[in-house]
């Protein structure tokens, strides 16, 4: 059972920050916005955060730019999703940065997916299956329950790397989890009208959201993960929806809106753009508003707002 930290204890722990010299702060290289936002919640003023991607970018498709390499070279900890999500660019960044502290297997190398139960773990791999991730579906951030799990692991890692401020990280974690648990109760209550709702998704990136909210995915617009929808496959989806009606088609904010709009127009259902991560849409400014905005958009599309 998690211990409750009083407001006085929390304030006392945070007061330790006053005497900590600047060199004790952790330099964080966060691959995705959700991990940059979580690092800020846990680390506060003790972490200097650089986020390598934005909410408007596909985390699969990033270039290993010199600016990323330079930031990785100075980082104390690399915080990424893992499960091969960043395989197209991160290995090159880490290799060229030549920073042993963030190398694979080092304390400064933190993969969020290592701490949660992975879904859609393939039993076999074949190039013909498309962009399938061997460790499982990496998009764990679409379920806020996973954020709490990763937060505990991240606070512990910060404490290991910066033991002088361990009390601060644990105090901030306790404060974050108290607020997060309250938000989870609110979100679960608000989401009741979505249970069992049939939907279509553009990419197979919402499995954790589907499990959290109890959504019933009927079809995916990509015939294979990571392969842009063909006109033929979209026509097949439209035909499927004639016998299996759905309430909405969901896509991430960074994805091309044309396939979702094609289905929406021909099936008479709303196309819903979800933020997917912090900064993905207006209003999704931090971790809390990310899920507020996600639920607001889903409920509005379902006529339940």
Essential attributes:
alpha/beta; disordered N terminus; 41% helix; globular; four-stranded parallel β-sheet; 8 strands
In short:
By secondary structure, the protein is an alpha/beta fold.
Protein architecture, described:
The protein has 305 residues and is of the alpha/beta class. The chain is built from 10 helices and 8 strands. The chain has a 4-stranded parallel beta sheet with strand order 2-1-3-4, sandwiched between helices. A 4-stranded parallel beta sheet has the order 6-5-7-8, sandwiched between helices. Helix 5 (144-161) runs antiparallel to helix 6.
Helix content: 40-55%
What share of residues are in beta strands?
Answer: 5-15%
**Main sheet specs:** 4 strands, parallel
The Rg value, from CA coordinates, equals: 20 Å
Order of helices and strands: HEHEHEHEHHEHEHEHEH
Q: What global shape is seen?
A: globular
Structural class: alpha/beta
Strands ordered across the widest β-sheet? 2-1-3-4
Distance from N terminus to C terminus (CA atoms, Å) equals 35 Å
Mean pLDDT: 90
Please provide the count of β strands. 8
**Helix count?**
10
User: Which regions have little confidence, pLDDT < 50, spanning 5+ residues?
Assistant: 1-22
């Amino acid at each position: 059972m998690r211990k409750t930290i009083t407001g006085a204890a929390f304030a006392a722990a945070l007061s330790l920050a006053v005497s900590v010299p600047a060199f004790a702060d952790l330099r964080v290289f966060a691959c995705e916005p959700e991990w940059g936002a979580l690092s800020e919640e846990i680390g506060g003023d003790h972490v200097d955060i650089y986020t390598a991607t934005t909410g408007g970018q596909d985390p699969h498709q990033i270039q290993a730019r010199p600016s990323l390499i330079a930031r990785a070279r100075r980082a104390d900890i690399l915080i990424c999703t893992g499960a091969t999500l960043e395989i197209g660019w991160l290995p090159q960044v880490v290799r060229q940065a030549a920073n042993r502290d963030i190398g694979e297997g080092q304390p400064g190398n933190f993969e969020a997916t290592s701490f949660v139960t992975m879904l859609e773990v393939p039993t076999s791999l074949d190039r013909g299956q498309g962009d399938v991730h061997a460790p499982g579906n990496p998009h764990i951030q679409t379920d806020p329950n996973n954020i709490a799990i990763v937060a505990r692991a991240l606070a512990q890692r910060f404490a290991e790397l910066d033991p002088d401020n361990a009390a601060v990280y644990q105090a901030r974690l306790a404060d974050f989890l108290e607020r997060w648990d309250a938000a989870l109760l609110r979100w679960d209550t608000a989401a009741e009208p979505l249970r069992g709702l049939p939907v279509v998704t553009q990419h197979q990136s919402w499995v954790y959201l589907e499990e959290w909210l109890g959504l019933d995915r009927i079809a995916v617009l990509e015939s294979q993960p990571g392969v842009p929808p063909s006109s033929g496959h979209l026509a097949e989806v439209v035909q499927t929806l004639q016998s299996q009606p759905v309430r909405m088609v969901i896509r991430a904010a960074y994805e091309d809106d044309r396939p979702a709009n094609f289905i929406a127009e021909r099936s008479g259902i709303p196309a819903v753009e979800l933020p997917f991560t912090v900064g993905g849409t207006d209003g999704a400014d931090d971790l809390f508003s990310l899920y507020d905005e996600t639920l607001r958009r889903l409920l509005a599309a379902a006529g339940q707002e």
